[in-house]
Structure formats: C-alpha cells, structure tokens
Amino acid sequence: MAGRSGLRDEHANLTLERTAEEPELGWFPWGDADGSGHPALQEFQDDRTLGERVADAVARFGGSWPFIFLFTGLILGWMALNSLVLTDWLRQRPFDPYPYIALNLVLSAIAGIQAPIIMMSQNRAAARDEALARHHYAETKKMDHLLDRNTELTAEVRQLTGQIHDLTSEVRAQLVGPQRSDPRVRRAKP
C-alpha cells in the first residue's frame, strides 16, 4: 500500500506544480485571454494597434456569457421601466411605449457597430492561427530532420555493434583457441 500512497503524493505534487505554473484566468472574458502565451504569437500580439486591441477586447466581451446576461438584463430593465414603472407605478407617460421602437433602434445600432468589430477581430484571429500554423510547420520540419538523423545514427550504432560483436568473437577465438570456440572440435578426455 505504500507504493500507491507514494503515487498519489507524486500525482498531487505534479498537479500543484502544474497549477502553480499556469496563470489563473478568472471567469472575466476581458482578462488575460489574448492568446499571447505561445512564443510564436508573442510578437504578433505586441505589434497590435489601439484599434486592434479594442476590436479584440470587444469581440472577447461580446462573445461571453457575462455580456449575454448583462445585455438581457438591460433589455428586460428597459421593458420593465417603460411598461411597469413609468406607466403603472408613477403614472407617467413612457418614453418608449410597448412596441419599443427606441429599444429596437438602439439594438440595431449596437449590432451594426459590433458586427464589423467582431469581423476585424476574427480576421486577426485567422492571421494568428496562420502564424501559429507556420510555426508548427517549421517545428515539424525540424523534428522530421532530427528523426531522420536519429534513424541514421541508430543504423550506424547497429552496424558498429555488429562489428564489435564480430571483433569480440575473433579475439575470443584467438585467446581461447580452436578447441573451445569451434563446437565441431571435440576435446580429448584426459
């Protein structure tokens, strides 16, 4: 049982080491999730203009659950303010009555501005993916070259091992003599 306990302890230590090395990204979509952790993307991320950084941040936030919940809350709040609070409770005229024309205009304007910003960010994501693919291709070519060289070296080692075996057999035959090295020769009994 001591072996299993040791394995569990080792696994726990590896898990702690791994989590200590990884940065903690909270649930915030605007946190440190720009994908610049890979060395091939570091320079790509560092050269962004202000507009590109804004587009990435808007796309990151616009495609998140907090945005959906916040936006849904704002729409429901708008509707509640105009339908319940102003008309029923305060007995005032709502600034955007039931068909919610102003809300529709605001939503259309947001969608009209947000769509091109998200497309700009998607274009940048495609360029990042292309840069990463080029890096992976170059790394794969290097690994192929190393693998080919390793295969050549393994063949050389095998050939040299065979030569060493042959030389060892020859040396043994010369030292021991023909009686012991050749199984066909029978030794005379004394």
Question: What is the topology?
Answer:
Blueprint: H1 2-21, H2 39-46, H3 50-62, H4 65-89, H5 101-176, H6 178-181
Helix pairs in contact: 3-5
What do you see in this structure?
The chain is mainly alpha-helical. It has one domain (45-181). Helices cover 77% and strands 0% of the residues. It has 6 helices and no strands. It has helices spanning 2-21, 39-46, 50-62, 65-89, 101-176, 178-181. Helix 3 crosses helix 5. The radius of gyration is 36 Å and the shape is rod-shaped. The two termini are 60 Å apart. 2% of the residues are buried. The model is unreliable at 25-32 (pLDDT under 50).
Q: How helical, in percent, are the residues?
A: over 70%
Structural class by helix and strand composition:
mainly alpha
Total tally of structural domains: 1
Question: How far from one another are the termini?
Answer: 60 Å
What is the molecular shape?
rod-shaped
Low-confidence stretches: 25-32
In N-to-C order, the SSE pattern is HHHHHH
Mean pLDDT: 80
Largest sheet: none
How many DSSP H or I helices? 6
Task: Classify the beta-strand content into a percent band.
Answer: under 5%
Strand element count? 0
Radius of gyration from the CA trace? 36 Å
